[in-house]
Amino acid sequence: MYKQLLRPLLFQFSPETIHRASVAALKLAGHIPGGRALMRATCSFRHPSLEREVFGIRFPNPIGLAAGFDKNAEAYRELSALGFGFVEVGTVTPKPQPGNPRPRLFRLPADKAIINRMGFNNLGLSNMLKNLRRRDPNIIIGGNLGKNTLTANEDAPQDYLKLFRSLYEYVDYFVVNVSCPNVKDITALQNRESLFEILDGLFDFRRGQNQYRPILLKISPDLTNPQLDDIISILKETPLDGIVATNTTTSREGLRTNSKTIQSIGNGGLSGAPLTKRSLEVIRYLHEKTEGQYPIIGVGGVMTPEDASRMLEAGASLVQVYSGFIYEGPRFVRRICKFLKLSSELKQTEE
Ligand SMILES: Cc1cc2nc3c(=O)[nH]c(=O)nc-3n(C[C@H](O)[C@H](O)[C@H](O)COP(=O)(O)O)c2cc1C
């Protein structure tokens, strides 16, 4: 029904308007008595075979919502009711910021893709803290951290540390995001030296805490193999807990949408179906080179249940979706979970 009726209607409006309206509608549904229970009953799917223990956290299923949808942690309860096994909120920055000028979000239906240059628009740390204060401990929440656009790269470690300290007791795991192509020069922080500076502060703070919070690094699909090797050496040399692979790409290769349209859209990160192959490659590379020793959250171009299954087979411990959720609708997670359950049953009968 979503693809036949609702999606054609929603796609008539600007993507950003629909995004805001969707978050508002989700929150509203959550406020109606029985609203969340109804969403859970119609959209989520639970089964013991879907449960996973990754970096010390027990996930009800391996399919999460990727960062960028619930930037301010406003609708994580409702998103959990839609069946997501975990919700990554953010990217949050210490101070609120408006992001890049509009338009900054574009659909490419012929490619089942999205281009965005949102630029970390968010309401800032204090607002997120307010939203997470009375959080449900049964919902697994990841906190995706970024620096303010106006913070110079050499001061970035302070931004990440401030967010990390303040959110420490409110989220279950952290993601250091230095791979967004839409914040000027931030991807330069993916080099060894800058990463060590950012991460060391977080490791030091964590050492003094009673609770352990896993720290992951979100990387770009545009890294070369030598750059991926650098990331692997950081994994081996530090207490970093894992990798989120991948963010959006700056590549425009192999798109069906005509080049004039692509040119008129301009800069931004591409997500959705054109990213599937590259994200899988990056995950497989990291998994094989590290002999599966580090958890990887696979994200990028999961548009079908089969894509999610392939990502797990390539070495991801967990999977996230964003564009697939936009194109496939609110029952997408349920479809993936049912498929994974069936696949695991088939495997068992074959064995
Ligand atoms: C509109 C939009 C906003 C995004 N914002 C963020 C963000 O704030 N932080 C982040 O780490 N990733 C962000 N992403 C990237 C996604 O989390 C994900 O890594 C990427 O879209 C690839 O997954 P997909 O192909 O399933 O969309 C954003 C993606 C989109 C489409």
Explained architecture:
This protein has 351 residues and is an alpha/beta fold. It has a single domain, classed as Aldolase class I (TIM Barrel, Alpha-Beta Barrel), CATH 3.20.20.70. The chain is 42% helix and 16% strand. It contains 13 helices and 13 strands. It has helices spanning 2-10, 15-31, 35-43, 76-81, 125-132, 156-167, 192-207, 225-237, 259-265, 276-289, 305-314, 323-328, 332-350; strands at residues 52-54, 57-59, 63-65, 86-92, 105-108, 113-116, 141-145, 173-177, 215-219, 242-245, 269-272, 296-299, 318-321. The chain has an 8-stranded parallel beta barrel with strand order 3-4-7-8-9-10-12-13, surrounded by 4 helices. Strand 7 (141-145), helix 6 (156-167) and strand 8 (173-177) form a beta-alpha-beta unit. Helix 6 runs parallel beside helix 7 (192-207) and helix 11 (305-314) crosses helix 13. It is globular. The protein starts with a helix and ends with a helix. The model has no long low-confidence stretch (mean pLDDT 94). Flavin mononucleotide (FMN) binds next to strand 6, strand 11 and helix 12. The site of flavin mononucleotide has 27 residues, from strand 6, strand 11 and helix 12.
Secondary structure layout plus pairing:
Blueprint (H helix, E strand, L loop, with lengths): L1 H9 L4 H17 L3 H9 L8 E3 L2 E3 L3 E3 L10 H6 L4 E7 L12 E4 L4 E4 L8 H8 L8 E5 L10 H12 L5 E5 L14 H16 L7 E5 L5 H13 L4 E4 L13 H7 L3 E4 L3 H14 L6 E4 L5 H10 L3 E4 L1 H6 L3 H19 L1
Helix pairs in contact: 6-7, 8-10, 10-11, 11-13
The structure holds flavin mononucleotide (FMN).
